[in-house]
Design goal:
By secondary structure, the protein is α+β, with helices and mostly antiparallel strands. It is built from 28 helices and 17 strands.
């Protein structure tokens, strides 16, 4: 895991500026830095290294092939590099390092662009082929690692984070306020599902995309190298065959993600996903190997899941470490947290994750396995039952519907939206907005937006069709286009802020191809969310977790934060600031009334007030500093 920055230009490259911008990524790679500059070709590549595989200098980047033809900068890990290296050696390739980076270079030499389809990993990479006069850029299938780029007058620059690109000459700081607000109000709806980013000058490769750049003309060709055919449903003679295949693939996914030359541990919440990972890790390691887990706790509140996490700790005999993300710590870390987040975050859950990665850093565990991806890929949210039922209806499976629907309504009462919610959703937003302000009631985020913005974010939830049944279409979209992509951005920024590498066993394309070609009952049948985990991985789970039906997100008791006098004072100061009063987006009067309602006991509104608050904190602790940083880089270069 590392930080990358590079440029291809038709004019002389101001190397000091790029070096200064690369320094902004030092947190992503504290173990080393390197650069490569081909002035005649107009190429500069910079790299900050977090050493994970082959800790020697042989693994340093930018990595040049021995014949000088290729130059690579690469952020991420290739988990199946051992198998690929063995295959390449059989084809005549030779290697001078034990790194996964060199496998990319030699794989490209043999297979060309097709090497991307062979990589099982997370990555953002740029590979210069001096002989062909091209640069291949690519992002992993799920979008675990970022690949941002900016096209300007005679240059294309690219990197791992917004802050580094925004510090470069010719890259505007202008941003799309509507996109920022839409993402603030509905995380996953905007900033991570489009090639356009919230910053006017910056675009991104989407998950599973690649781009080839001509070094001579800067012309680009972008294509998608990975997708899943949802029109195909696999036919299993017995459901147990599907579950056995899922089990074997998942165990292998954990196995290859434990390859490392530095310590590996796990995040552990006590939920189904992280518990399964820890169980499989213990199975692979054997009974005696030391293994560390890291858990966020919220003692004395309904948000605390320690009683479940403790079951896993005791069963798997791991070394457990605990942190308590508090409101006081949040206020202390807020400037740094927002600087590294780079965009507004959806809730305090992201800060809880921040604290867990900090805990891992304190205990010198560099690589962490985590459970992200399971909910979106395998149907982990109860709201997916609506799509499951739709899929069964389309198939005409009346017997299963008659058997399961009453139990779904009993076990997951909030899964199917009822009458009042339907009436509200059908009422015009302009009328709902007016009634809320007239009655001083309501909790819809959009009631606190000024006219124009309120209506503009209304239709963010519209879903597309992808060729499968209703359930698989929804899971595909939330995995590769909507919800998970935003969570992966949070995870990347939070882990890298602490120089930690997070690896996600559920984000393995082999699992995705299997799950998204299963019939719907294999995913959510018999009134189960994430049925493959509960059945295929049961041997690795405490029974109380395998049969735990309620989904509890990993987030602090944010409503209780609003009983803290210091936090309320920070809210008051934010809402009464000149910046907020002059906002073209937020309705100051509405949010001051919301704060009064919170003080009056409506603590659940704290989840809503978070959004304008974090938007202001983003402006204060990221946008303003990044503009100042760019000016400082200009002065340094001069």
């Amino acid at each position: 895991m590392c930080g990358i920055l590079g440029v291809v230009a038709k004019r002389p490259i101001e190397v000091p500026r790029y070096r200064a911008a690369l320094d902004l990524l030092a947190h992503r790679g504290p173990d080393g830095e390197g650069e490569w500059h081909d002035a005649s070709a107009g190429i500069w590549l910079g790299h900050r290294r977090l050493s994970i595989i082959d800790l020697s200098h042989a693994g340093d980047q930018p990595m040049l092939s021995p014949d000088g033809r290729f130059a690579l900068i690469f952020n991420g890990e290739i988990y199946n590099y051992v198998e690929l290296k063995r295959e390449l050696i059989a084809l005549g390739a030779s290697f001078v390092s034990e790194s996964d980076s060199e496998v990319i270079i030699e794989g490209y030499r043999v297979w060309g662009r097709d090497v991307l389809a062979r990589l099982n990993g997370m990555f953002g990479l740029a590979l210069v082929d001096r002989q062909a006069g091209t640069m291949l850029c690519a992002r992993d299938r799920f979008g675990e690692k970022p690949f941002l780029y900016a096209k300007g007058d005679g240059f294309i620059a690219f990197g791992s984070e917004y802050k580094a690109l925004l510090a470069l000459p010719g890259v505007s700081h202008g941003h799309d306020e509507l996109m920022i607000v839409t993402e603030t109000c509905a995380p996953g709806s905007s900033a991570d599902r489009n090639r356009r980013t919230p910053f006017d000058a910056i675009e991104q490769l989407l998950p599973g995309e690649a781009m080839e750049v001509s070094l001579a003309t800067l012309a680009t060709d972008t294509w998608r190298y990975f997708d899943i055919d949802l029109t195909r449903t696999r036919d299993f003679a017995d459901p147990r065959d599907a579950m056995a295949e899922f089990r074997d693939l998942f165990v292998d996914s954990v196995r290859i993600r434990m390859r490392s030359d530095v310590p590996v541990g796990s995040c552990l919440s006590g939920g189904l996903d992280s518990s399964a990972i820890v169980g499989v890790a213990r199975h692979l390691l054997g009974p005696d190997a030391k293994y560390h887990t890291f858990t966020g706790r919220f003692p004395g509140t309904s948000a605390d899941e320690w009683h479940f996490a403790e079951l896993v700790v005791n069963r798997s005999h791991v070394v457990s470490h605990i942190v308590e993300p508090t409101v006081g710590r949040f206020m202390a870390d807020l400037p740094r947290f927002m600087w590294h987040s780079e965009l507004p975050v959806g809730s305090s859950s992201q800060f809880a994750q921040w604290c867990v990665f900090h805990l891992a850093k304190e205990h010198d565990v560099t690589v962490l396995l985590d459970g992200q991806g399971a909910d979106e890929l395998l149907g982990g949210y109860e709201q997916y039952f609506a799509f499951y039922i739709e899929a069964l209806k389309a198939r005409g499976d009346t017997a299963r519907l008659a058997r399961e629907l009453p139990e779904i309504e009993r076990r997951y009462p909030a899964a199917l939206e009822g009458g009042a919610g339907k009436v509200r959703s059908q009422m015009p937003q302009r009328l709902r907005h007016a009634l809320a302000h007239l009655l001083n009631r309501g909790s819809d985020m959009r009631f606190g937006l000024k006219s124009g913005f309120s209506e503009a974010v209304t239709d963010h939830a519209a879903r597309g069709e992808h060729g499968g049944d209703a359930l698989r279409d929804a899971l595909y979209e939330d995995t590769f286009e909507r919800h998970l992509t935003t969570l992966l951005r949070y995870g990347d920024r939070n882990s890298m802020a602490h120089s930690r590498e997070v690896r996600l066993p559920f984000c393995d394309h082999r699992l995705a191809e299997l799950a998204l070609q299963m019939p719907p009952e294999f995913l959510m049948g018999d009134v189960q969310t994430k049925r493959p985990i509960r059945e295929a991985l049961r041997e690795f789970l405490p029974e109380a977790i395998a049969t735990r039906w309620n989904k509890q997100g990993f987030r602090p008791p944010q409503d209780l934060w609003f009983t803290d006098p210091a936090f309320l004072e920070l809210m008051q100061d934010t809402l009464t600031s000149a910046s907020f009063r002059q906002s073209a987006v937020w309705d100051q009067r509405w949010w001051l009334k919301v704060l009064d309602r919170i003080r009056g006991g409506e603590l659940e509104l704290g989840w809503k007030l978070w959004q304008p608050f974090i938007h202001e904190m983003w402006k204060q602790h990221f946008l303003a500093p990044v503009i100042r940083t760019a000016a400082a880089v200009d002065r340094l270069a001069a």
